[in-house]
Amino acid sequence: MNSPNEPLPTFDEVLLCTPQTTAEQVELFLRRCLIPCSGGEKIYTMLYADELSYDVSCRAEELFQHLQHYNSTYRLVILCNCEREHSYIPSVFSQYKVHMIPQRPLAEIQGYLQHHYSVAQPSSSAASVFKDNMCVGIVSSKRAGVGK
Questions:
Q1: Which of 60, 99, 138, 142 counts the most CB atoms within 10 A of its CB?
Q2: pLDDT of 58-89, one tens digit each?
Q3: Cα 125 to chain centroid, rounded
Q4: Which region is the signal sequence (predicted)?
Q5: How far apart are CA 31 and CA 68, in angstroms?
């Protein structure tokens, strides 16, 4: 948010982890992050890395230890659920842990996201179904099983 006109991360910069994430997916992601190339100064982010299976987490740590020697200027952020801080990945990287609380007001964060996710020409876009011609939206319910 410090650079409002910079683009949001692209698909190759973010890995959304689930228990079904494979070691191959993590390996490809870490190789993009840790092997130097002329792709610029991207910030790579693993979301919910605490959900990786034990085997995948072990392989990810081994690969990280091996590849980090090739690039001393990598930029990697690993986000985990604080309720699962004792799972493998948060434990391995605990020396780098930073507890983070958003430092900006909610309205400012929403404005920033609206700037990046609004569609300029909504007439031929599915974005017309979302509020303010946004190309993304969150649908939630307090009741389970209502088809959302």
A1: 60
A2: 999 999 999 888 887 888 899 888 888 889 99
A3: 26
A4: none
A5: 10
